[in-house]
Amino acid sequence: MRSQQNGAASGALPLPAALDAAAPSPRRALIVGATAAGDALARDLTLRAPEPILPVAFADDDPTRLGDHLNDLPIINLDGDVTRRIAEGDIQIIFAGADRARWHHLPIPVYDAAAYYENAWHKIPSEFIDLEWFDGPGFLLLRNPVAETGKRVFDFVASALLLILCSPIYALVALAVKIDSPGPVFYHQKRTGKGGGVFKVHKFRSMRQDAEKFGTPQWASENDPRITRVGNFLRKTRLDEIPQFWNVLKGEMSLIGPRPERPEFDDKLREQIPHYMTRYSVRPGISGWAQVMYTYASSVEDAREKLSYDLYYLKHGSPSLDLNIFLRTVQVALTGKGR
Questions:
Q1: Three-state secondary-structure class, residue 111
Q2: Strand partners, 60
Q3: What b/e string do you get for 172-196 counting C-beta neighbours within 10 Å, with b at 16 or more?
Q4: Burial class (CB in 10 A: 0-12, 13-18, 19+), 12
Q5: pLDDT per residue over 39-74, tens digit each?
Q6: Which end of the chain has fewer CB atoms within 10 angstroms, the N or the C?
Q7: Which has the closest alpha carbon to 248: 119, 141, 161?
């Protein structure tokens, strides 16, 4: 499995202030919302922020939670407690979500949590945005038909060439799959496409023929015993994905875009993750920003994290970002560091 957040463009982790005598004292931060997303933000600020920041408390408007703790940080009142602790100098910055406007009257900086994630870690957690966020700047691929048409033309030409160039590899991989384990060479599976439609994705089979013998969809896991010996190699080098150039040629997929999920999983994830289905606003891709920045999804929390990278791609999708993703994908294929 690739390490999680295995390529953040922000570079090496900063030294903790205690280990760096020249480092300034960390700014003491309040995080609005004692939620799983707020807890994740607190951990990220502690471990990976581009500046020294020390989360000291969560603020929440649920009166039943006041006085409780979330991972050792106290949960305080949104109004009185916050004002008092600011006056005492105990809170120096605030990280807020979609309701950040209510804090602008305070005499300290109020950071948009989504924007901070976007700039520092190149992802946008869906819990920190609302529908109005999608009306903001960016979203070149969603709003510019010329850009979308250009991407489609490139996908068509490139996938046609790749299908021809990879034809010798097709034969070798097909022979290896057939020799290694009984069953068909190709595996066809329903996936969700642009706009929520369903199509069949094509792959070289990398699991046993009876991988889902009881008919229940399952996420692949690390060291999954259903993966064959050849299949393990195909997954690490991404060779199992080669038949999807045909999906790209047909217009069902793009070379680069959010990875399509199985409809059975989407039905579950859309109920638990805010704005989940927005990832299908564009054609899904063979590779994507989430694929090169995170691991394969094997849980709801993994899917939540991958969506944060998909949202970043939806906002910043461009030829230069596509090239970045392509080069990272080639590196994974050549080094066999995939999963």
A1: strand
A2: 77
A3: ebbebbeebeebeeebeeebbbbee
A4: exposed
A5: 999 999 999 999 999 999 999 888 888 889 998 999
A6: N
A7: 161
How far from the centroid of its chain's Cα atoms is residue 103's Cα? 29
What pLDDT does 213 receive?
65
Amino acid at 322: D
Polymer length in residues for the chain: 339
Beta bridge partners of residue 32, listed in sequence order: 59
Cα distance between residue 287 and residue 135, in whole Å: 26
Angle at CA 144, nearest 5°, toward 316 and 288? 35
Query: pLDDT tens-digit profile of 169-200?
Result: 889 999 999 998 898 999 999 999 999 999 99
Q: Any residues with CB less than 8 A from the CB of 210 and at least 6 apart, and which?
A: none
Q: For residue 125, give the 3-state DSSP assignment.
A: coil
pLDDT band, residue 214 (cuts 50/70/90): low
In the structure encoding, which two tokens stand for residue 246, read together?
């045909």
| DSSP code per residue over 170-181 | HHHHHHHHHHHS
Instruction: Look up residue 118 and give its two tokens.
Output: 């976007």
Query: Residue ranges of the alpha helices (H) in the chain?
Result: 36-48, 80-87, 113-121, 140-143, 145-165, 167-180, 229-237, 244-250, 263-272, 289-293, 300-316, 319-335
Pairing of strands 73-77, 69-70: antiparallel
